[in-house]
Amino acid sequence: MYARRGQPKTTTRCRETQGTNSEAITAICKVLALAGNETRLRILFFLKEEGELCPCDFVDILEMSVPSVSQHIRKMKDVGLITSRREGQTLYYSLVQNHNEVLDNVFAKIQKIKR
Amino acid sequence: MYARRGQPKTTTRCRETQGTNSEAITAICKVLALAGNETRLRILFFLKEEGELCPCDFVDILEMSVPSVSQHIRKMKDVGLITSRREGQTLYYSLVQNHNEVLDNVFAKIQKIKR
DNA sequence: ACTTTATTTAAGTATTTGCTTAAATAATTA
DNA sequence: TAATTATTTAAGCAAATACTTAAATAAAGT
């Protein structure tokens, strides 16, 4: 009879703290999943460095196709990580300052590691 | 003739800073990609809270299958995010303190959001 | 030695993700 | 208003991811 059991006290404690933290974990996880893609992390990083940039800039910088860049941008806009401002034909994207307790730390670490 | 061009000064500057930061971005991105999965983020979070836990505990806490938990653990072990210590049949996993400038911030934020 | 428990590993499958090409919007310029 | 530029959106596909079931390894208990 296979009845694997974790340490009872510990697991019930964890299940309880999971209850209170579950939504926070889910929310942060979404941000991490977005930042956990090289193209998107680069986009975020350059927005941090430059303030605002248009899709067309990213196409040049990252050497990727237009729709590919646009689709990555969309995902980040959908969860409110970035916003846009239109100036004629071009859309300027920038970081939404808010989420960024986590992301700022990521950017800081990227700059610190520099070779 | 379609010749989309980003802002020349900006894009060349970005291409340069990308050169110096590329490896840092790639490295951090791997950690974020791992943490950007709910199961793994929960595993990391509970390791932070409890110090050390065995796969069997996570099966109970997260209500997932044994191999599924084990495979998630493996990925994090492979990049050195966690380590193990054996005690009889059971393996105790814990966080490797090192990477964690980024992860610690994530954990702090999870606890801060609490409902 | 045989059985049980804890865990991993392997193989197969379904879902998700990230790209591509093609078409649609939107603003500008001729 | 027709052509050009900037961008998005949609559809299709290939690669990656996360699960499942089944088999393998490892330590203990009987």
DSSP helical segment count of chain A: 5
Radius of gyration of chain A, in angstroms, nearest whole number: 19 Å
* CATH topology call of chain A: Arc Repressor Mutant, subunit A
The CA-CA distance between the termini of chain A, in Å, is 55 Å
The tally of strands of chain A reads 2
Beta fraction of chain A? 5-15%
Which strands sit side by side, in order, in the main sheet of chain A?
Answer: 1-2
State the major sheet of chain A.
2 strands, antiparallel
SS-based class of chain A: mainly alpha
Model description:
- Chain A is mostly helical and 115 residues long.
- Chain A has a single domain (8-113), classed as Arc Repressor Mutant, subunit A (Orthogonal Bundle), CATH 1.10.10.10.
- In chain A, 65% of the residues lie in helices and 10% in strands.
- Chain A has helices spanning 8-35, 38-50, 55-62, 66-78, 101-113; strands spanning 82-87, 90-95.
- Chain A has a two-stranded antiparallel ribbon with strand order 1-2.
- In chain A, helix 3 (55-62) packs across helix 4 (66-78).
- The radius of gyration of chain A is 19 Å and the shape is elongated.
- The mean pLDDT of chain A is 92.
- Chains A and B meet through helix 1, helix 2, helix 3 and helix 5 of A and helix 1, helix 2, helix 3 and helix 5 of B.
- The structure holds a DNA duplex (30 and 30 nucleotides).
What structural keywords apply?
mainly alpha, DNA-binding, two-stranded antiparallel sheet, 115 residues, homodimer, WH_DNA-bd_sf (chains A, B), Arc Repressor Mutant, subunit A, transcription (chains A, B), 5 helices
Compact overview of the structure:
Two copies of one chain form a homodimer. With 115 residues, the first copy, chain A, is mainly alpha-helical.
